[in-house]
Design brief:
alpha+beta, Leucine-rich Repeat Variant, PH-domain like, 9 strands, 56% helix, 8% strand
């Protein structure tokens, strides 16, 4: 490592009597087969096997002429080799410097290449563009039209269509111009056709492009696109053919469904942030229609004979029965945003789509004694706000989350239908709690708990949600709270606290062992670039003797690859520090605001080898983040600091304590130990065995 790379190459070439040492380079035999350069030579580990090969500039020169060959076999082979080598940054730079991309454009624009030759060309193009040497905006219109035509034509290889969809997906976020071009040329109908194929990879790439288009669109465009997709029944298709298909759902597809759900729910944001305008005739009429639907049968006949004053006081009385706080001017209640006009929309939806339930709710409460009536309007406004918070309406999409609700895709008008179930739940819980107006906040708190506890069970349909949330009545919530409180009180007695402290070291050791075992099993990580959510995966696992971390790139669908297949390694002895969140080098590079908040929460890095190098991770979930950071801290001889350690320790301690205290059920444990009695004055009560034996 002390000599310049050129002199090392010269020595090797001389040993094998090879002239022109500058035409050669060293390259890794395993893994990605990267070329060794002055900038990356420090990463060579002891035990790495290198081979002598043609230098990147010679290779680039050879392939540059190879892809121009008239012999189609030579051309296809050259393109195949080019697709493989283009992952290497040194080679890519050499090839691009020779104007190689122009040649690739020429092959595509000419339109003679098909099948394998075309697939290799597009793959090489993708890999070369991945290095960000060239801007996507430099692509010619002819080239883009050609790529679009592969997506739009039917008789094209699936591999070519997949690559074309990927290229367009990469293109969309880079500039407004390219977004508009792709949106115009690749219709939503065409993407929906691709979604309906049986080839899972093609389906995934079509979904990726659809999501990229939705995320790059303006609010108005996004609304139009979502309306069109709704017309085309994309929701029913996803529910039937993707969520409930025989194949398990991959992480990538789960993420896209999460984004689609998030984008759909965020369409409510505009109404949620708009206050009611008391001077808007249209909005006032909507409010009046709420009142009329509830009380029309009582007031329709005589109302016309009343004076204006009398009519106004009648309206005010009816608005008070509807549960508005400000009954003379109910619009005031809807001035608060959020939930703004979204609350009015929900009330109207409930009154129009379930008129019987609406009338029952209002009439039942208007005939109760004053202090026990459940105010419909006030409850609706607060419930809408609670639902917006639980469903994260108006929050930006996370880059990594995969948590979508399967029932979301099982239902049109999901938000409104969920509201209809929950507003009836409010009335039911109100009665169970025998609440008065003063208990309003308490009731809504219980309702929030009922909704979140039921949603955490991931019900597959709204019907199932309704059954479960209604089964979780107030007495059930009280029981759950009581159990949690009792458990807390029981574990706060002084002797119990002392026992906890004594048990802690043993249980922490158990957690350490579990963390290390998890590291030995390994985890699949994603590479996330600044431009998009990548589909490149890599795997990392700890050797069974806890001495070495092995890692390497893997293909989609590979689960727990054997250690031998992971080429890269870091000895645990060389690991120096664990960095998390903002301290990591890969989060500093691209701190571009809101969408990286979730990446910050999942990022960690290991600094190794004299603190020169870093291995950067972005965990797939918060759970994996906690297990990995704990495990690495154990390897570094430090304390486990994640929140998961605390919850695991609490669970284990509570189980262990329950087992130990089983015999003491219903016995109150005193805070101070009872006094030890004095020893007896004589011990004559002892039985003398020696006498009996004689």
């Amino acid at each position: 490592q002390t000599k310049p790379l050129a002199s090392v190459l010269k020595e090797v070439c001389d040993a094998w009597s090879l002239p022109n040492a500058e035409h050669y380079a060293l390259q890794y035999v395993d893994g990605q087969q990267t070329y060794i350069t002055e900038s990356n030579r420090g990463e060579i580990k002891n035990g790495s096997i290198l081979r002598l090969t043609t230098s990147p500039d010679q290779e680039a020169e050879r392939l540059y002429s190879g892809i121009q060959s008239n012999n189609s076999d030579v051309k296809t082979d050259s393109l195949k080799k080019l697709a493989g080598l283009s992952q290497d940054v040194t080679f890519a730079q050499e090839f691009i410097n020779r104007n190689g991309l122009k040649q690739i454009f020429h092959i595509v624009e000419e339109g003679n290449a098909t099948g394998d030759m075309l697939a290799h060309t597009l793959k090489a193009f993708m890999e070369l563009m991945e290095h960000d040497f060239v801007s996507w905006e430099t692509l010619s219109a002819t080239f883009i039209k050609k790529i679009v035509s592969y997506v739009n034509m039917n008789a094209v290889d699936a591999s070519v269509q997949q690559l074309s969809l990927s290229i367009l997906e990469n293109m969309v976020p880079t500039s407004r111009l390219l977004f508009e071009l792709v949106k115009k040329e690749v219709t939503l109908d065409r993407l929906l056709t691709h979604l309906q194929v049986t080839n899972a990879q093609l389906q995934l790439k079509a979904m990726a492009l659809l999501i990229a288009l939705l995320l790059a669109a303006t609010d108005a465009e996004r609304r139009d696109m979502m309306d069109y997709l709704r017309e085309k029944n994309i929701r029913q298709f996803i529910h039937k053919n993707i969520i409930h298909s025989s194949e398990p759902l991959g992480d990538e597809m789960a993420h896209y469904l999460y984004v689609l759900q998030s984008v759909s729910l965020n369409l409510c944001e505009r109404r949620m942030r708009t206050s009611m305008d008391p001077y808007s005739q249209e909005q006032r009429e909507l409010l009046q229609s709420l009142r009329q639907t509830a009380f029309e049968s009582e007031s329709e006949a005589p109302a016309s004979n009343f004076s204006t004053e009398r009519r106004r006081s009648l309206c005010a009385k009816e608005f008070r029965k509807l549960g508005f706080m400000n009954n003379s001017n109910p619009a005031e209640d809807l001035r608060r945003a959020p939930p703004g006009l979204l609350a009015l929309d929900n009330m109207l939806y409930f009154s129009r789509h379930t008129p019987n339930a609406y009338s029952r709710f209002v009439l039942e409460n208007s005939s109760r004694e004053d202090k026990h009536e459940c105010p419909f309007a006030r409850s609706s406004i607060q419930l809408t706000l609670i639902l917006c918070e639980i469903l994260h309406v108006g929050e930006p999409c996370s880059e990594t989350a995969q948590a979508f609700y399967p029932m979301f895709f099982g239902q049109d008008h999901f938000f409104e239908e969920l509201f209809c179930i929950c507003i009836q739940l409010v009335n039911k819980t109100w009665k169970e709690m025998r609440a008065t107006q003063e208990d309003f906040d308490k009731v809504l708190q219980v309702v929030r708990e009922q909704i979140t506890r039921t949603l955490s069970l991931k019900p597959t349909s709204l019907e199932l949600f309704k059954t479960r949330v209604n089964a979780l009545n107030y007495s059930e919530i009280l029981k759950l709270r009581q159990t949690e409180r009792l458990h807390q009180e029981e574990t706060l007695a002084v002797p119990v606290l002392e026992l906890r402290e004594r048990l802690k070291p043993e249980l922490l050791e158990l957690i350490r062992q579990q963390r290390l075992l998890h590291l030995c099993e390994g985890t699949l990580f994603r590479k996330i670039s600044s431009r998009r959510r990548q589909d490149k995966l890599w795997y990392c696992r700890l050797s069974p003797n806890h001495k070495v971390l092995h890692y390497g790139d893997v293909e989609e669908g590979v689960h727990s690859p054997p250690i031998e297949t992971l080429p890269e390694k870091i000895p645990v002895a060389d690991m120096k520090v664990l960095l998390v969140g903002k301290e990591c080098p890969h989060t500093k590079e691209k701190s571009s605001g809101k969408q990286n908040k979730d990446v910050l929460e999942l990022a960690f890095s290991i600094v190794y080898d004299m603190e020169e190098y870093c291995l950067n991770f972005v965990a797939p979930t918060r759970y994996e983040f906690c297990l990995w950071t704990d495990g690495l801290n154990v390897l570094l001889g430090k304390e486990m600091t994640s929140e998961r350690t605390q919850t695991d320790l609490d669970v284990l301690l509570s189980m262990e304590l329950k087992l130990r205290l089983l015999d003491l059920e219903n016995i109150t444990i005193p805070d101070t130990p009872p006094p030890v009695p004095k020893p007896p004055s004589n011990l004559n009560f002892c039985y003398d065995f020696s006498q009996a034996e004689q």
